């Protein structure tokens, strides 16, 4: 469902990703490693946001470099920061993502919105939302299009206790039939989700 072969990425003279290989069947995975080692870089490459220098990524057997649209329709990516247009409302953001994913907002997505307690915020401009509310909106948007691969960078950051518990339940449910690949420093969160820990260093060719 998620396959990575020989992925390399450098910034200037510094090689961050060294021949990364990875194959994930449906389930929850927590990418762990020290600050600055390259976890976010790897997630950006897996999401097709940052092109690798070499190597390839497959999402549901669609190679990101050969069939980027087909591959991206099957994945969802939520970065740690919230790159949301400040002038659109919560509803408009969800509609925008659904349009980009060529799908409708299903009852399942509306249930995720409701479980995060977002219904009362949908008419609010994103720029007027708190950071935690923006984060919940962005996470809820990751359910749009029923992706087979979810790439979430520090998803529990900034969430209150209720939202944290909702996220744990949602990820447990989603990981039954999708790859949930999460970067996090939060060991308790990974345990609650039932995630398999993946040490970043173990993926590097020269370990
Ligand atoms: N666009 C970029 N240009 C140059 N260097 C970058 C760029 N993006 C990231 N880096 C560098 O690559 C290294 C890995 O960064 P990355 O954000 O992937 O680490 P991380 O493991 O996610 O860290 P953290 O746990 O702190 O979030 C860092 O040294 C960072 O400064």
How would you describe this structure to a colleague?
The protein is an alpha/beta fold. It has one domain: P-loop containing nucleotide triphosphate hydrolases (Rossmann fold), CATH 3.40.50.300. Helix content is 34%, strand content 26%. It contains eight helices and nine strands. It has helices at residues 39-46, 68-73, 90-100, 107-115, 131-141, 161-174, 187-193, 200-203; strands at residues 2-11, 14-24, 27-32, 54-59, 62-63, 75-78, 149-153, 179-183, 196-199. The strands form two sheets. Strands 6-7-8-3-9 form a five-stranded parallel beta sheet, with helices on both faces. Strand 7 (149-153), helix 6 (161-174) and strand 8 form a beta-alpha-beta unit. The longest helix is centred in the last third of the chain and has 14 residues, at 161-174. The protein is globular, with a radius of gyration of 17 Å. The mean pLDDT is 94. Adenosine-5'-triphosphate (ATP) binds at residues 11, 16, 33, 35-41.
What's the architecture in CATH terms?
3-Layer(aba) Sandwich
- Kindly state the percentage of residues in helix: 25-40%
Beta-strand portion reads 25-35%
Radius of gyration: 17 Å
Protein name: Putative ABC transporter ATP-binding protein YxlF
Keywords: ATP-binding, Cell membrane, Hydrolase, Membrane, Nucleotide-binding, Transport
GO molecular function: ATP binding; ATP hydrolysis activity
EC number: 3.6.3.-
